[in-house]
Amino acid sequence: MEWEDQGIVLSVRRHGESSAILSVFTSGHGRCLGLVKGGMSKGQKSTLQKGNFLAIKWRARLEAHLGTFSCNLLKSNTMKFMDDALKISVLNSACSVVDLVLPEREEYQNFYLQFFSLIDNLSESRFIINYIFWEIDLLQSLGFGLDLSRCCVSGEKEDLFYLSPKTGRAVSEKKGKPYHDRLFPLPSFLINRTNSDSISSVEIKNAFNITTYFLGRYVFGVDKKEPWDRKQLVDRLIKMDTMSSS
């Protein structure tokens, strides 16, 4: 059996002396694993970097087998920002999260396009906001989407100010004020899906508090611990915010 597709490198681990097990998120076949012969060689290492966009061919005798990949580099997505530690941290976090939470060989074409867009646009100045939107999209793709369209108590669409940790639904300022200590502050840019320079570090922190909570509750759960790369990204952002405010 064999198929051809395009995809983004999620992770690579050594197998034997010189081969590698490649995890790749593909357009038409979802997250797939395969053996790359000679994958740890100098010639292959640069091709199999996290976030790189590949043309791949998978072959196996039976569909249930691991199979082998042959890979050609279509685009290196890391060369543009190799000296930017924060962008590399975002790339590593996104790849590690996808590698952990997506089931193998299940197609997620819409989410693949969102993932591709995130990686392809990391050179933009407001890439952190794009990453937050992407985590919101991940929750939606896995069936745990947040409802930010209206107040879950009154049904009103205006003055949305909080988010309920129990329901993942927005709450207006008036209805939520008596319970404000039990609710998440809801950044307005999440409601309007806007990305601008006026978004404050406090709003970014509040947005990460929301996605961290719901990813931990519904996606990472008991069996899947939050990836170290994501923890490192959040820690890096907190340190940057602390330094800028001191």
CATH architecture of the largest domain: Up-down Bundle
| Structural domain tally | 2
In DSSP terms (H or I, runs of 4 or more residues), the helix count works out at 8
Structural class: alpha+beta
Element-level helix/strand string: EEEHEEHHHEEHEHHH
Percent helix range: 25-40%
Widest sheet, order of strands: 3-2-1-4-5
CATH topology of the largest domain: de novo design (two linked rop proteins)
Oligomeric category: single chain
Largest sheet: 5 strands, antiparallel
Under CATH, the homologous superfamily of the largest domain reads Recombination protein O, C-terminal domain
Rounded to the nearest angstrom, the distance between the terminal CA atoms is 60 Å
Kindly report the average pLDDT value. Answer: 91
Determine the strand fraction and express it as a percent band: 15-25%
CATH class of the largest domain: Mainly Alpha
Low-confidence stretches: none
User: What overall form do the CA principal axes indicate?
Assistant: elongated
